[in-house]
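User: Can you recover a sequence for this backbone? Please restate the input before giving your answer.

Assistant: Of course. Working from this structure:
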């Protein structure tokens, strides 16, 4: 019996029928939301949904704010503060939370290799900026405090359990609330099919159970049907957890099956401290999984009832499906959906000591026998007898002995501002999965209530993630990459910023020597804010060079003016051609298809009364989530352009058609750049810009790496791992909140901000385009 499974519950979240507060608008009156966003109040919208329109001007999300979201997403309790920077609707419809950390990468990596990260940017609509990381990024985002680390608690102290710590209010006991106070029969203790689905038992017809065998037990069940205690031990292999021992005990305590099993795949960790299995014990074993499957099917009668503790994990290790089960971790119901450990129940109910620390690992036969006795005790004495034992008080007493302090109740834990994600998970009987390379484990790996699996490579981390993520409600998967050298970082930062300046610049011409310069300036300024406009006289006929403040304005000018007649001359409007703009057409197309830009439009020519004008016709703009009105950083005045963010592309297109029509007379198109990118580009120093067309030669060592396409080159790594993580995201169950975090880098040579991508896996997202 593995103790870590005790905290690995996926307890169901109760559906709370409460009306969500409407979204707020950024830069617009909050009252607009209630009339525009009528879709939010529709009863059919019963799935988890994110809105990140409450960003600050610099679009930066702090590590503490990330922690806010993670706690709210996992717990979803009414007394947990909602995140201050975004909105999560219908949290009770979330199934899992998964955080992928790409250690060593930053926002610079993402936009320098934007095309290579295609899978991720298409899958995640919400992106945000992160500050440069501290010394321990993961400890920050899960909220581990320096004064109170979860891993620094004292070791368990042994001591007798009191007979009864305090008076029991039986009516409030969760066992009484579920089963009543009268004795119940065996059939009442069986898990229903819905409960088995909720607690992730293998079921026929589920995609992940296609190769599972049926026990063929399909007889009618009665209160006198035979019970069998089952316990399995597992090891960690290259394909996840695999069976190493199975013990089956019949009523009366007779062990009818006790077999060691040789896994099919390479063993990475025998988990000896839990399983008692060593390499020496398993070496001579020739029994395979298929052998014990055949033996178990032969042993069980048609009406057999399997009894286990976290039995879903045992059946998954066996790769078998059985319809009639009793799970003692669920039978002995605990407050807040938590579960009692088998060792605790054996002592509190039966007065027996098991899993003793002086013994190497667990005895599977002993555990199976205890599990069976616990079920028999429940059936013999009934729920009232169990409730009178006051198990919660006994467990609290044991915690005092183990930690040296009074256990805080759930409400106190959740409301404390410095509560970590680990403590919140522990308060509801859940556990965090942490997958990482061994050399990059950090402090989180040694924290209490964290199931850490250390791997030797990123490839192994990915393989383990496929197997382990479905078993945990909250997972952190960390990949590690070699950070840029200071020289390469400086060069790439410069080239990235220059590239953005160049693709926001257009050349137009030729014009006649007698052209009206004032009219031309007015024409090009009608598409967006202009940084600079210069006359180019190096050519036979004059040309104009216009550098726009935003990429959308430059693209709109090209689309509107290229090929038109000006004073009888057909002009060409195009970007400068340099090595940094050769792929700009592809880049612009990909930016427009970016999931974050889907549903956003750019408009130029708006006045200071634009908001008020919109208020007069709210029904024309159903689905509008945000009005983003940039301001001049020097004088604080509203600029003449804005971005409107809608829930869907269709709503955005409908609004664009209206606003660029004859009634509004605005210029606009679909957005190309997310807000966090605007914030980053605004901060670039003037000296990093260059005259358009000036060539920047890549450093020789980067040229060489690109030519040989080394696997560890950042460009190749972005492409390969973006696809791999994208495929893993596709395999997650619907209703999974997923975050991709590029933490940024920090060194004595300077810091680079990070980037976060976020989304909720939808039911229809079976694949990601481009994989």
């Amino acid at each position: 019996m593995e103790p870590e499974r005790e905290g690995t519950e996926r307890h169901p979240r109760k559906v709370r029928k409460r009306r969500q507060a409407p979204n707020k608008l950024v830069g617009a009156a909050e009252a607009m939301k209630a009339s525009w966003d009528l879709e939010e109040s529709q009863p059919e919208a019963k799935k988890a949904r994110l809105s990140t329109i409450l960003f600050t001007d610099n679009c930066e999300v702090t590590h503490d704010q990330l922690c806010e979201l993670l706690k709210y997403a996992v717990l979803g309790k009414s007394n947990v503060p909602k995140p201050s920077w975004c909105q999560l609707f219908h949290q009770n419809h979330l199934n899992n939370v998964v955080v992928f950390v790409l250690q060593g990468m930053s926002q610079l990596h993402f936009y320098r290799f934007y095309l290579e990260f295609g899978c991720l940017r298409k899958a995640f609509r919400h992106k945000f900026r992160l500050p440069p990381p501290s010394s321990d990024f993961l400890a920050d985002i899960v909220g581990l405090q320096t004064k109170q680390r979860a891993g620094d608690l004292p070791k368990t102290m042994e001591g007798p359990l009191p007979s009864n710590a305090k008076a029991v209010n039986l009516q409030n006991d969760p066992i009484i609330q579920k089963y009543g106070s009268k004795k119940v029969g065996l059939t009442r203790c069986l898990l229903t099919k819905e409960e088995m689905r909720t607690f992730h038992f293998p079921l026929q017809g589920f995609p992940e159970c296609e190769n599972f065998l049926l026990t063929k037990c399909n007889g009618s069940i009665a209160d006198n049907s035979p019970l069998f205690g089952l316990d399995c031990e597992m090891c960690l292999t290259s394909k996840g957890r695999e069976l190493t021992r199975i013990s089956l005990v019949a009523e009366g305590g007779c062990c009818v099956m006790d077999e060691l099993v040789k896994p099919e795949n390479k063993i990475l960790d025998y988990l000896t401290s839990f399983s008692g299995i060593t390499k020496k014990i398993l070496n001579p074993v020739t029994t395979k999984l298929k052998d014990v499957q055949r033996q178990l099917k032969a042993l069980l009668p048609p009406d057999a009832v399997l009894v286990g503790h976290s039995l879903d994990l045992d059946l998954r290790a066996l790769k078998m499906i059985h319809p009639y089960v009793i799970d003692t971790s669920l039978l002995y119901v605990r407050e807040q959906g938590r579960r009692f450990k088998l060792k605790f129940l054996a002592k509190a109910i039966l007065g027996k000591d098991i899993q003793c620390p002086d013994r190497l690992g667990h005895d599977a036969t002993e555990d199976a026998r205890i599990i069976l006795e616990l079920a028999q005790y429940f059936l013999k004495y009934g729920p009232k007898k169990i409730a009178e034992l006051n198990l919660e008080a006994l467990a609290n007493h044991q915690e005092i002995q183990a930690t040296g302090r009074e256990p805080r109740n759930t409400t106190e834990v959740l409301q404390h501002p410095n509560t970590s994600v680990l403590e919140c998970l522990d308060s509801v009987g859940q556990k965090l999965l942490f997958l990482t390379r061994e050399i990059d484990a950090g402090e989180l790996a040694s924290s209490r209530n964290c199931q850490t699996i250390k791997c030797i490579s990123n490839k192994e981390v990915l393989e383990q993630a496929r197997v382990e993520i479905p078993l945990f409600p909250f997972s952190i998967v960390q990949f590690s990459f070699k950070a840029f050298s200071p020289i390469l970082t400086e060069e790439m930062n410069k080239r990235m910023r220059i590239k953005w300046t160049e693709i926001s610049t257009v050349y137009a011409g030729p014009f006649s020597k007698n052209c009206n310069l004032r009219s031309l300036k007015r024409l090009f300024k009608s598409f967006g804010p202009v940084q600079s406009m210069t006359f180019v006289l190096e050519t036979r006929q004059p040309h104009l060079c216009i550098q726009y403040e935003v990429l959308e304005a430059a693209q709109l000018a090209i689309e509107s003016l290229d090929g038109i007649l000006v004073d009888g001359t057909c002009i060409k409007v195009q970007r400068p051609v340099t090595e940094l703009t050769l792929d700009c057409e592809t880049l612009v197309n990909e930016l427009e298809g970016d999931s974050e830009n889907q549903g956003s439009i750019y408009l130029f020519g708006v006045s200071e009364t634009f908001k008020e004008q919109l208020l007069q016709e709210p029904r024309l703009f159903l689905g509008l989530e945000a009005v983003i009105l940039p301001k001049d950083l020097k004088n604080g005045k509203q600029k003449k352009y804005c971005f409107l963010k809608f829930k869907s592309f269709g709503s955005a297109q409908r609004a664009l058609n209206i606003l660029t029509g004859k009634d509004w007379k605005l210029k606009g198109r679909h957005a190309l750049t997310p807000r966090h990118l605007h914030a980053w580009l605004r901060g670039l120093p003037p000296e990093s810009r260059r005259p358009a067309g000036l060539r920047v030669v890549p450093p020789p060592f980067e040229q060489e790496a690109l030519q040989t396409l080394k696997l560890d080159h950042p460009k190749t790594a972005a492409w390969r791992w973006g696809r791999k993580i994208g495929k893993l995201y596709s395999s997650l169950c619907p209703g999974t909140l997923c975050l991709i975090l590029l933490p940024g880098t920090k060194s004595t040579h300077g810091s680079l901000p990070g980037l976060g991508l976020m989304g909720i896996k939808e039911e229809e997202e079976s694949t990601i385009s481009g994989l």
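That completes the design. The mean pLDDT is 78.
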